[in-house]
Model the fold of this input.
Amino acid sequence: MAGQRAEVLTGAAVILAAIGFVVYAGQITGRGTGNVGSYDLKASFRSVEGVKVGTDVRLAGVKVGTVTALTLNPQTFYADATLTVQDQIALPDDSAALVSSEGLLGGNFVELVPGGSVDNLAAGAEILDTQGAVSIISLMMKFAGGGSDKADSTP
Done:
């Protein structure tokens, strides 16, 4: 009888610990209960290399949202992104969205750069000033080329 009681208490402790881990993970990833409200913004990028659904959207290095959709626009051949941003973040309507890198070996994220306008972006609005991902390989090739652009120009 005492052995069964110990097994039941141990099982209950394991279940409570598992629930605690799930709640903690939800809070860390921003998917837990009590989340603040959010709104969507649209942006079109020439390249979203390294960005996928779930990628961070950051403002001043702080996560303020996520990329919730990526589609290819067949008319412009640009990648249309939907960015979900926290309600308390009111961005000026001349803000910019850039695909940035965490470093040479780090991942990419979408960086929001606020503008100076007094009018703010409404829910569903499009950020017009965008800059796509910069390919590290193409930068290295330009660097390795050693100024081949200068050799092509004529005096």
Strands lie at 38-45, 56-59, 62-72, 79-86, 96-101, 108-113, 126-127, 129-131. Residues 1-35 form one domain. The longest strand covers residues 62-72.
